[in-house]
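Model the whole thing, not chain by chain.
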Amino acid sequence: MAEKILFIIFGVLAIGGALMTITRKNVIHGLIALVFTFINVAMIYLVTQAYFLAVAQILVYAGAILVLFTFVIMFLDLREFREMEQFYPWQKYLVAILAPIALAEFIAVVVTASWIPTQQGITPEMLAEIGGNTWGVGVSLFENMLLPFEVASLILVAAMVGAVIMARKETTPNVALRAWAPADGPQPGQLEQEV
Amino acid sequence: MGYIWLIPALPLAAFLITILFGKWFIKDSAHWLPILAMAGAFGLSVAALIQSWGAEEPYVLNLWQWFTSGDFQIPLALQLDQLSAVMCTTVTGVGLLIFIYSKGYMHGDPGYYRFFAYMSLFAFSMLMLVLAENYLLLYFGWEAVGLCSYYLIGFYYHKPSAAAAGKKAFLTNRVGDFGFGLGVMLIWTLVGTLSYSGVFDAVGAGEVSDSALVAIALLLFVGAMGKSAQFPLHVWLPDAMEGPTPVSALIHAATMVTAGVYMVARSSVIFASARPALIVVGIIGTFTAIYAASIGIAQNDIKRVLAYSTVSQLGYMFMALGVGAWVAAVFHLVTHAFFKALLFLGSGSVIHAMSGEQDMRRMGALRGKIKTTYWTFLMGALALSGIFPFAGFWSKDEILGMQFKGGGYIIWIVGLIAAFITAFYTFRAVFMTFWGNDRTDPEVGKHIHESPKSMIIPLGILAVLSVIAGLVIGLPPEGGLLHRFLEPVFQHANEILGVEHHGFGALDVVLMIVSVLVALSGIALAYLFYIRRPDELPQKAGKKAGWLYKGIANKWYMDEIYNVAIITPLVEGSRVIYKWFDVAVIDGLVNLAGRIWGGFGKMARPFQTGRVENYALIMFLAVVVIVAVVVL
Amino acid sequence: MQIPIEWYLILSSALFIIGAAGVLLRRNLFIILLSVELMMNAVNINLVGFSRFHETLIGQNFVLFTMAVAAAEAAVGLAIVTALYRNKRTLMIDLFNTMKG
């Protein structure tokens, strides 16, 4: 029973944080609201006995990704945008109508579906049996998911390289990296004429 | 005689190699290959000529099936009989001499290789034409020589007048070719085959009705009119003189323009069975002979004089065909090829010496400066005028004699008048060019020089041929070497026509004397006009003649008549159709089709805002709708 | 007493719709990126809920991969944001309409 009460509390808080996120004018405010939402989601993981994920959620999302966002926001001077209209001019009315309808549909789908509870779900006893949640996730990850795990690391490397390339300031007239744009160096035509 | 396929194949190979490699590799030595190919073809033609002596049936060489479409089967087959052999030998022989001549004449021209390539292609086409075994292959050669003629008339394509002349020749020929094409189709429809032997057997057996035969013969003759420049489709030939002189000599005097004569002679069985058509041929030929000769009087361009004389001489050939004197026509064709090629090459030599000057009013007294050219040109002029014993005399006299003996006195008289005019304008050209006062531009006069050997030698050979050809192959008249040789070809047609064979008698001698006298008086008149009193008589005569002279000088307003009667209505009609039908209806429909879809596009354009969020909204909307429809 | 699976799903749906609405509503590219992160979290909740329901830990492994992808996406997305900002001096995405037809 306590679980259910905790779930409802954290769930409501998460939804509230999410609403704050998308309504704040100031980006930083929205960001902090999102951190709040993520922490609440982590709490829900805890309630669900997904301890490793709860920690990872706080570390990776709230700790790393959103700090990255903060950094970028602070690098770019975004104060001027606060003066502007924050919502999409006419689309917002449509979304205001459509989003509740969509939610109602989703809920209707979930409620009307017949869930056959053949099992009780994971209980603390079961977790203790296999050596705890973290142990179980680790074993599962490195036994069943080793290849996807390595591929994920590749994706991260590729994303890192791409991000560096795109975000770097163009200071050196390096022709090789900007093959699609005319550089200051000698053009092919000029070379032919000189020869 | 399986080698006859080589006769057209050699020039074709020369053409392919020259056109492919001429620009970069062969360049200034482009003449060797075509000359060698022509020499080879000439040798083979002579061999074929000798071998075909006395053969009763034509030799047919089936190369392969060209195409088959139901019953319509056309083999790519060559046929060699005496007529083809004579034509082949003439074409390759004269062609070889002209090729050699061109080496000197075209020397240093930027299009040197192109010239020899097209000349070789022409030789190939012409040989295909004469060696064809069926009407479709004949049609192929027919069109191909027209194409080469177009290329070569417009050889100096950067000159607007040359380009226009090429177009004019092509379009005028189209008219004729259209008739010819219809004739071939009609033959196919009525007879069911296109091979000569099949068609002639069917015609001889009376399978085709007389009226249909007349239609076929007239349609074929329309083609011959176009190709052989007969009135009223002659207008292209004088303009064709825009091409290089060797082209005029080979194509527009010696060979291609005789294709019409060859074709009518080849179809002698059809024409003999269609008497009315034969009469039309004779009338058109006679009229053209005197009509073109009259225009020749007032021309000042040396090549144009010769061009009109060519038209006139072709008229003589058709005049002969009109009374079934097939051999006389072919005889005149051969001798004409010799002396007209000689005259053209001689005029080319004159033009060469005069640094490109073609107007006879700015020539004169050249006979001392370019002796060889003068003497050879004189031989040609005598042959053309029909002076005993030159080649032209025998052939022309035979034609006129056959008219007289056949009872066509009016035609005979017209022919004599035309012969008189011919002698007059030919010697007018000779006197204006080589005799009289020196009217040359002093600047040009300094550079007058005799042409190189490669040009002189062909002139000499042709001059010899112009003198002796008639004696060798045409004596005695109506029974000479050529007659006996060609007898098997025309046997059938002669049987149908029932031509009587006249012996050589006193009448012939009288007729000969008459025609020689007529020719001599023409020369004498020219002498009087242009040597004795050149300053007053021509002008006086021109004034006296009044409208006659005007008509002659303006080529009887033929070009103007064409302009008013055909070209202007066509252009104006096209313009009206263009404005009211093309622009309004067709373009309107096309634009309407475009506008409809453009309108749809415009309707769809607002959806393409370029803003991703709008697209995302549509997607979201779609999810809502799909969930609503599918799941609920 | 277990939490019913429906609760997870409803919470997940609510967060997802809010994220989607954020993407559609806002003009600021930053907020849109944040909304995308929110949508991903909604999916994670879904995965965790089913993981528990099916008595297996595979679903929780999936969440880890989602996090990796989210990190990659955030890095690349932020790089794009910087590049865009440098070139256009704005982040209001309705002003980027060069693809307009």
